[in-house]
Amino acid sequence: MRRILSGAVAVLVVAGCGGESETLSADAFRERANAICKQLDEENQKAFKGIDTDDQEAMIRATEDLGARTQKALEDLGELEGPEASEAAVDRILSRAKALSEVNAKLASGDAEAAEEATRLTTEAQTAAKDAGLKDCT
C-alpha cells in the first residue's frame, strides 16, 4: 500500500506549468510544491488507514478517491510557475507521469509485464522530484 501511495505522490509532481501566476523563486517553488505534496500524502494516508486490503470495494473507493485528490494536487501544482530549472524538472517528471498513466491502464487490465515498466517510470519520476528538491513529492 505504501508503494502505491509513494507512486501516486511521485506522479502528482507532474503538474506541468501554466496559469498566469507570478514566477516564484526556486526556494518558493520548492516550498509550495512540497506543501502540496505533503498535504496529498497526509490525506492519502488518512484515507487508507484502517482499510482491510482484502476488502476490494473499500480499496476501489479509496483508490478512486486517491485519483481525485491526486488530480486536484496536479492542478494546484500546475498553477505554480518557477524558474526555468524548476520547470525543466517538472517537464521531466511530466513525461514520466504521462507514460506511467498509460502503463497503469495496462496494469489494471492485468498486463503483468507492465509492472516492471511502472516501477521504472515511478523511480524516474521520484528521482527527478528528488533532484529538483521536492522531498515531499517522492
Automatic annotation (TrEMBL):
Cross-referenced Pfam families: LPAM_1
UniProt keywords, alphabetically: Lipoprotein, Signal
Stretch list, region Disordered: 118-138
Biased composition (Low complexity): 120-129
UniProt name for this protein: Lipoprotein
Organism name: Solirubrobacter phytolaccae
Lineage: Bacteria, Bacillati, Actinomycetota, Thermoleophilia, Solirubrobacterales
